[in-house]
Structures are given as structure tokens and as C-alpha cells.
Amino acid sequence: MQLSAVLTINGVAVKAPKSFSAIVQDIDGNSTRDASGNMHRDRITVKRKLTIAWGPLSNNEIAVIMQAISGVFFGVTYPDPQTGTQKTATFYVGDRTAAAYSWNNKFAAMMWQNLSFDLVEQ
After folding, report:
1. CA–CA separation, 70 vs 93, rounded Å?
2. What is the pTM of this model?
3. All residues at 6 or more sequence positions from 112 whose CB lies less than 8 Å from its CB, including other chains
4. How far apart are CA 89 and CA 3, in angstroms?
5. d(CA 113, CA 76)
6. Which of 72, 81, 99, 120 is most deeply packed, by most CB within 10 A?
7. What are the pLDDT digits (tens) for 18-53?
8. Greater confidence, 2 or 9?
9. pLDDT at 107
10. Strands (DSSP E) found in 1-122
11. What is the DSSP letter of 14?
């Protein structure tokens, strides 16, 4: 039985995103090329960068997500393409962008769209 993919940030299962990309990054130290052009690589570790975006969100939905990423570092459980499983690691967030989708003064309701940010593994 296959488990469904769930995105959990700081212990909170957030609304499913519109788009999700997982980038597997090699972090190198002092990598150089010799006189023959051969690479001598000092790979220190492998980390993930998650690029995530949502479609329309209510005030409550966006607040839940924004509060979950407000710490300096936080845990994230996400579907990992290299392991084929849900993986949990510690991340930090880059710049956050959110555009107004609908502004309705009559009902005092605000909708948001295209909340997006990168999560970078610590």
C-alpha cells in the first residue's frame, strides 16, 4: 500500500501546494581542476531545496503556512524523490511572496494567490 504525499511544516500539515519541486544539491568544499582539466571534488554533503507555491488561499490558510515557517529553523516532512518516501529534515525559508487574489470590502474578505518560497535544508 502506497502512502499519500503530505507536506508538514513545523508539525503542521499544510494545504496541498499547487506546485512542489525538490532539488537535490551537492555541497562542495574545496573542489578544483588540475592542469589536465580533471575535477578533484570535495563533496561535503547532499542537501535538499524545496520550491513550493500555492494557488488561492484564504486568510486563515495563508496564516497557518506563514506562521509555520516563521522560525529560524523548523522541521519539514515532504515527499523525497531520491528515497521515494516521506523524509523529515530541518530547513530554513527564503523570501516569501504572496499576491492579493481578491479584495472584497463588502464582505471584508481577502484571498491570496501564488504564495511561494524556497525551503533550504540546514
Report:
1. 8
2. 0.84
3. 56, 57, 58, 59, 61, 62, 98, 99, 100, 101
4. 19
5. 22
6. 120
7. 999 999 999 988 888 999 999 998 899 999 999 999
8. 9
9. 58
10. 8-9, 12-13, 19-28, 32-33, 39-40, 43-53, 57-58, 74-80, 85-93, 97-104, 109-121
11. P
